[in-house]
């Protein structure tokens, strides 16, 4: 399989596209610039199967309806943030003066940690709250990658001072789920460059001593 990181919107939120040899793909966090993303998908002859959301902050959901409407595909989200898509007060767009960023209800609600199978794609879903109460990480063992959203970054961790955030929960999520993965696992964050579990174990100052 192949994957592509596509920064979108004013906060350069990382959208990811993961595709197989048949050009079927999954889209993680289509945050903004929906028409730009549609153009890229069509230029590369990719066939989207689903949208996976790591969480429902405004900068991760801005292009959800454009992508869903164009390809008629389902949206997956954690149960704790199922109401956030339609509510600018919850998704933060109102708080940060970003206008009324909204999306329709999700089609699939994730209620527990499990193995998610979509066509030929198999992902392990981890509940990784702390940045937000319904943050999820998606681990693709066969490819050695984890889509971590705003939980873990290169040399940093997600902010926990937004509504529903918790610093201790964030650290526990990272320690219990992400740092237990093989050290060579690539961590694909919601902002900034990719990193690896091993690099963050060795050099992330926010994790030292935890």
UniProtKB/TrEMBL annotation:
Protein name: Metallo-beta-lactamase domain-containing protein
KW NAD (keyword) present: no
Keyword Zinc applies: yes
Co-factor(s): Zn(2+)
SMART domains xrefs: Lactamase_B
Origin organism lineage: Bacteria, Bacillati, Bacillota, Bacilli, Bacillales
Keywords (A to Z) from UniProt: Hydrolase, Metal-binding, Zinc
Superkingdom, taxonomy of origin: Bacteria
The Metallo-beta-lactamase domain, residue ranges: 12-191
GO molecular function: hydrolase activity; metal ion binding
């Amino acid at each position: 399989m192949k994957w592509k990181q596509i920064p979108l919107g004013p906060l350069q939120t990382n959208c990811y596209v993961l595709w197989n040899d048949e050009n079927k793909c999954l889209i993680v966090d289509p945050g903004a610039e929906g028409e730009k993303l549609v153009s890229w998908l069509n230029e590369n002859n990719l066939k989207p199967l689903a949208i996976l959301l790591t969480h429902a902050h405004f900068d991760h959901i801005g292009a959800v309806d454009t992508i869903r409407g164009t390809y008629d595909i389902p949206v997956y989200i954690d149960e704790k943030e199922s109401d956030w898509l339609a509510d600018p007060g919850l998704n933060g767009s109102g708080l940060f003066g970003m206008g009324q960023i909204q999306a329709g209800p999700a089609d699939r609600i994730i209620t527990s940690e499990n193995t998610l199978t979509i066509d030929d794609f198999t992902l392990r879903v981890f509940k990784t709250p702390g940045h937000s109460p319904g943050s999820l990480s998606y681990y693709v063992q066969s490819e050695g990658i984890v889509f971590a959203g705003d939980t873990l970054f290169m040399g940093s961790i997600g902010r926990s001072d937004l509504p529903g955030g918790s610093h201790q929960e964030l650290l526990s999520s990272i320690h219990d789920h992400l740092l237990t993965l093989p050290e060579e696992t690539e961590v694909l964050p919601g902002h900034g460059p990719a990193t690896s579990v091993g690099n963050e174990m060795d050099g992330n100052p926010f994790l030292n001593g935890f």
